[in-house]
């Protein structure tokens, strides 16, 4: 019966937190370019500086380990999301270079700390058998909230003609209100294992680190250059790009939970193999595409493969010492962002010579990831982290597949 349903569970809390975050970040992202040009008179130099500042907290995400010496993970996740909401809420009140740098830094610290903590809490709280399914549901919840954020921007800007200041304030306050309500409504859940409060890099996790780094590199090519291709080569308008985002999130809303079930059924290696083979084809398609419709199809397919990255997290959940999860989640988030610092600059220079070469490099990265993924055992676990290498067990796999 409905009255007997226990909704005050860790899985439900993770789901609701995933709904809260995009309501502010989605609004910030949707309004940013128009706001900085119209109100702060930004040029390319200022927007480049702003985006670099936004990525710095991601690169420094490992520092969350030291904050955990003072604050429990669940509480720090609440505080981080509230900081994200406040950073977005006050953005419209500071239409200057310094003001936007400071509000963006506040928003970004909260956002990146929350993302690292979300991964850590999910890997600690979710049962290994059903973790891919729940991670898919959490991803779908984020897509739903992003759609709500885009609808909110459209309604308030186009229909109600509200000023940027009030739209930012509304989006940020929604996140703050939801998180405050969750803080009050949910108990402090016990951690199954006491977490190490120091930086940890273990040799036996090397494959997870390598897959995480390559995933960050691939994400930068999508985020920075795939959208740029749409505008520069095919003349996509703001409305056209917005429609692509909406299509991406609608499909993610439907497919992400199914991808989680696929990972449970077929295992991490097969799921990642499907992703990376698909990415090789997609990046090759970007390099060769000549029609706007085909480019849009590639863009949507590319975005769908993000859901497959769940398999990297669940592989790690199976091999990790439970006490390492919080520290490792923070360190891996930093590893993921190394590419965010390097690739936009280097590949931006390559773009001036040959845009197609950028995507061929992306295909090569996907090929490297494909080779790495083949080293995941069919039954990953402690002592069975890889199929081939120094840390592979003598008998290799109990059940090769």
What would you note in describing this structure?
The chain has helices at 10-38, 44-59, 64-67, 73-89, 97-125, 131-159, 164-185, 206-234, 238-266, 268-288, 292-304, 310-319, 325-353, 355-373. With 401 residues, the chain is mainly alpha-helical. Helix 1 runs parallel beside helix 4, helix 1 packs antiparallel against helix 5 and helix 4 runs antiparallel to helix 5 (97-125). The protein has 2 domains: 1-192, MFS general substrate transporter like domains (Growth Hormone, Chain: A, Up-down Bundle), CATH 1.20.1250.20; 201-401, MFS general substrate transporter like domains (Growth Hormone, Chain: A, Up-down Bundle), CATH 1.20.1250. 74% of the residues lie in helices and 0% in strands. It has 14 helices and no strands.
Keywords:
14 helices, disordered C terminus, Growth Hormone, Chain: A, single chain, mainly alpha, 2 domains, globular
Unreliable stretches, pLDDT < 50, 5 or more residues? 395-401
Helix/strand/pairing category: mainly alpha
CATH class of the largest domain: Mainly Alpha
Q: How large is the share of residues in beta strands?
A: under 5%
Task: Please provide the ordered H/E string of secondary-structure elements.
Answer: HHHHHHHHHHHHHH
CATH topology of the largest domain: Growth Hormone, Chain: A
Radius of gyration: 21 Å
